[in-house]
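User: Look at the shape:
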Amino acid sequence: MVDFDEWVFASSRMAENAIKVLDEGLPDVIGRVDHDSVVPMAHWKDSGFGAVLFLRYSIDDQGESRPGVVRAVCRRDESSWVALPNWSGSGWSHDPLEPSETHTDLGDRTIYVAGGSRTDHPRDGEPAIVVCGRHSPQVESMFVHQNGRTIMSRATGHWGAWIVCLAEWAPYTITVLDGRGVTRGQLVGPSDLPAPGSFA
């Protein structure tokens, strides 16, 4: 993991932080997370788009702190990343500050979809699909297949978090493998995405 300055956890610098993560990788978060932190949990990058999944807490109507996520999306512009203006967010079922809940949201699943955004008519310079979720600790790599193309990503997200960002509106498959190269789970989309109205 990359050693970042403390400002990487500041909400006021999320756009800068997203680009920094895409350029340098995820920061070490051990012992550095509290309810005021905005934590980069996972990232994805391809030749055209990159995405960073941030953990962010908010206060609910009962005054309790609840985990949520922000899906930050960037576009590749020649040799640099440009943060796009329209990000999305949603609730997050896993709270890393509650050790007793480490894997309860997974149940018997190896990987699941927690939320995302999608459009079959993406605007110029924006992706068609952004999807995120969690996977089990046994997962070490992810393969995304779409239109005869395969993209491999190491499963390096904190607490099993993952995010995928795709330029095309087309069917895709996400396959997860363990350290021995054995397939442990698969998702097929975009039908796996919750209904757009369910996103926060």
About this structure: Residues 14-24 form the longest helix (11 residues).
